[in-house]
Fold these 3 entries.
Entry 1:
Amino acid sequence: MRADPVTLDGDAAVAAADDGTRNDRPDFLDTAVPPRGLPLAVLLLSLPLFGQIFHYMKDLPSLWALSKAFPILSLPLAFTLLVWNRAPITRQVVITFAWLVLAPSFVATVYFDQDFFTGVAAQVKLLPMLYFFSFLALLLYLRPTLRELATGYIVCGLLTYGALIILWALVPQSWYSGNYAFGSSPLFSFDNRGNRIRMPMYFGMITLFYGYRRFLRSRQVVWLLAAALGFVLTLFVVKTRAMMVGVAGMLVITTWGSASAVQRLVLLVLAPIGLAGLFSFGYLSTLFQTDATSGFDVRWTTVTKALDFLGTDWIRWLFGVGTISPINSDNLFAYFDHMFFLADITWLGILFEFGIIGTILILLYQIRGLFFYRRLEYLVDSDFLASLRDYILYTLLISGLYPPTLTPGEIAVILAIFAYTYQRLQTDGPA
């Protein structure tokens, strides 16, 4: 039988702090000690970059360029890990990153007639996977408590929602662009969904999941209202269908996990009705449309051209065919005579570029976080860590609409936190 995990959130944490047992607990888990200024300040400054918040925000060119360069700029931190014991998950991240960069770069020399080093440049999108090492090294030197980590994330999440409210209230209509290049993602856009603010929601989603978990634990309405506000802002301001699919799915899954047998029976009846109602609402109903305005015809043509190119050659299916590097004078548009975006066809695009082997490695990269959380769950019961696990599951839920290769740094940072937590628990010992 396992020992009861240390509970860090909710009423139990307050009771433990008040009954005189606080000093018997390791500092890493002590929720009664206020966050320290220096670790929290460093986290608040670095988390937006590690979380790839500015990675696709070309409207902010300086921050966008810094975000693109940050995997390399922060890499020296990773070399300091040599003085520490090898962290869990390290081997898998190394193997996954090396294969995903080298294998498609090599096969692209055959199928797209480009040299190997040009092919490597096509995989710069994978560089944020290295955040596992650089962020883990930063954590090992800062040695933040779990409360400081949670505070950093929640503050970033609250700032995300605060920025959404301010921008929604103050930005003039003239800033919303209705004409932009296909495949670009301006921060302010106008389309058949109305005005949209394409705010990166990494911290916002985790904050929403955290608030809902706190409500389920404490039954305090304030946490439910906080989660509901995040849901409403995402629904009516961000207006990204993939996000709403993921959020709705995670709320059902989280509720199911904390429900009694009777409540689960009720949920089996109400959840399908609620989801059907949600996705028949406004722009969400277009998720299932296949007319020209939905872009389905463009994606379907991409699917057929990708499948035709893979053909019946098992080597192409197993190892993939790579892609044409953006620094190449040619591009996929010209090669296929079509607006050919691998991201549009999500998992098929991943299989096209990385093959079955690479696709399995990417999937296992996500799943490892889910299984490793179960390992942590035996030692510590934290709503914050659970909300990080929720985000990994969320990325899997939306992966059919938004491929995980676009923002691999998000999962890398979560895996680094899991590895750091495990190492601190092994060093300090459970309470």
Entry 2:
Amino acid sequence: MHMSSCNACTFAIDDGDNFCRRCGVAVTEAQLPAVRTSVMPTIWRSQASPVVKGAAVMAAGTVGQFLVRRVIGSLLTAGAPKKHRAIRIKNPRSDGMVDEAQIITETIMMRRVRIRRQA
């Protein structure tokens, strides 16, 4: 190995060094690339917030569940003859509910992710 010295502090520099180990001055003999290539790796970061992602997953799950039930129901009733029923209007009762009461079910999914970076 050929040893040379730093121009600034006269410290001994190895052939593989690009900078002086004592003062940090760049060694003039090292040829570093000056132009970067056009394809550089980038870190992908999602633009959507976790709330929007969760809502999208819930909506996709609801639509998927509806379609699966619809397909299975049509397959089960494909061979059976269709029944035509007359719609009967019932007399209103005084049970305290509105005529068009709706049943609402909600499913909430939460996910917590912890990322630990090692130094």
Entry 3:
Amino acid sequence: MKAEIRLSAHEAASAAAIQRAIDGLGSAGGRVILPAIELLLDRGLELRSGVELVGQGGQTVLRKAPGRVYPLSGYHNYGMMDAPLLFTEGLEPGMTVAIRDDRHGGFFETFARITWVENGWVGVDCGLHSDYHDDLHPVLVTAFPLIYGLEVHDVAVRGLTLDGNRGEQPEGIGGCRGAAVYFLKSRGLTVEDVQESGFLGEGLGFQMSSQVTIRDCRFANNAGNGFHPGAGSTAATFERCVGDGNDAAGFFFCVRANHITVRDCTFTNNRACGISVGTRDSFNRIERCRAEENAGPGILFRDCRRPVEVEAVQVRDCRIIANAWESGRAQVDILGDAHNLALTGNTIIGRDEPQRAGIFIAPAATHIWLNGNTIEGCSPEVIALEGALAAQAPELACGAEAAQPIHARHLPGYQETT
């Protein structure tokens, strides 16, 4: 039986104390159980392999501390495990931070933990991911995921309420390097009953990860996407989740997110769209979901061209209602060179104003199978060139249920897991 650490409110009085409990489990892993608390986090909680972090649902509230910005004192170069700052007051070892300049975001942004502070310099636990240029306003910011794991396996997060404290953050962290809950190059991940809102960035994101289960979670009112499986992630299941009121999409399939199932989820009132599918996002299944009242399309297949087009995606038994009030051609937009898509059994209902089509299929899209969809209040119901629609249903092996080990061979650690 794995070890279990049940913390009292006194023992969980700081992020550093919780981190010590997590680290204290050692390589064998185990469970850390948090009490009913409201705690301000001055650093992210880093999960180790085999660790389960459990709270008391709405009674365990972890809130991000107000953020601060520390300008670098000049240019600093790739690979260095330190950075020069104009001032360092308030920084201490163990805190988590992000480093970037005006040009270098995405995976060129550095997320790291401070290892030392001395004479206007800070040390960090990884090499900088880019050169940072003094004429591009390089900064270190106290922006970080509230809970994260880097190159971990078999971890779980359950029963937590997370507050990104967005109004107190002068700078956020980009979706490639962070989110309120974030994993990188990991496998065997479970996130259940996590309620999060107000992060200056993405809600939940994982990059280059596989064997993921997300259930009964809500990620809302974030500056980026609500949910963001990215960078080749595969074999992931999302069930009974909600993405509401986010500044971008409720759910965003990023580059080469494949063999993913999104089931019984709801995406409403998001600024960009309900669900966004794009570059090489293939063999995915979206079923029994609701996409309603989003500013853009309920479901958007982004404008991607061969050889990185969208293909082999199923959308079935969904309710796609009253979207595209600000942008988009239809309740469902299928753009670019998308092909071999199947939309079946969906209920698609438009708005009175502005009135959009039910389904828009771009001129280059082909082999789109439409069957058994109910379309109401849309004008016209379908926009498509002759020949764009498939004459018969495509044979598609989609979703996490169809994932095989070989589908993760593009990810780090593949040889170790097969």
